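Operator note (shift B, R.M.): manual run for DUF1062 domain-containing protein requested after the automated queue skipped it. Running by hand, logging everything below so the morning shift can see what happened. Input copied straight from the record, untouched. If output looks odd, do not overwrite the archive copy; leave it for review.
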Amino acid sequence: MLNNWVVAPTCLPLVLRRCHTCGSERFRTSGKFRVNAHHKLIDAWLLALCTACGETTKLTVLERMHVRSVRPELLDRLHDNDPGLAAELLQDPVVRRRNRIALDWEDAWRLDTGGSDHLDREVIDVSVRFAARIPVRPVRLIAEGCGLARAEVERLITDGRLVAAVRLSGKLSGDFTFTLKR
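Run finished. Output pasted below as returned.
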């Protein structure tokens, strides 16, 4: 029987960027946008506050775009401060590269294993699905989901009793499956 686990965000991740005021490197986004129009051109930013001093930084979403070239639904979502749009934009590699930011997902996600009835089985087949592109170490997910220490998970990998089609070292942000033989 295949167990389905889901890695889901619980809140927006922290934005890693240096604060010009205090030198801190963490900003919290609230999902608020600022939209500014210059005749037929429009700019839009996602606002973020420094976690240390509260200074506001603007993450560029649209820059000098002709108003008619922006989808009306996008404009509505920007004006409505849609938190779902903020999450989508933070996941967008173009937005992250343009603003020279990285994301800190620590304490911003949870693992839903669907219960612990699988823990007593001799062989466990698990499919892990990511609801968002959250980079997490598979060893950490497996340890948390199976109630094991990370060192124990590492030992199971070394012994060949924990196998997957993907490399379990490093971080993953895409779906994968694994088999654990006790």
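Quick read of the result: The mean pLDDT is 92. Residues 83-91 form the longest helix (9 residues).
Leaving this for review. - R.M.
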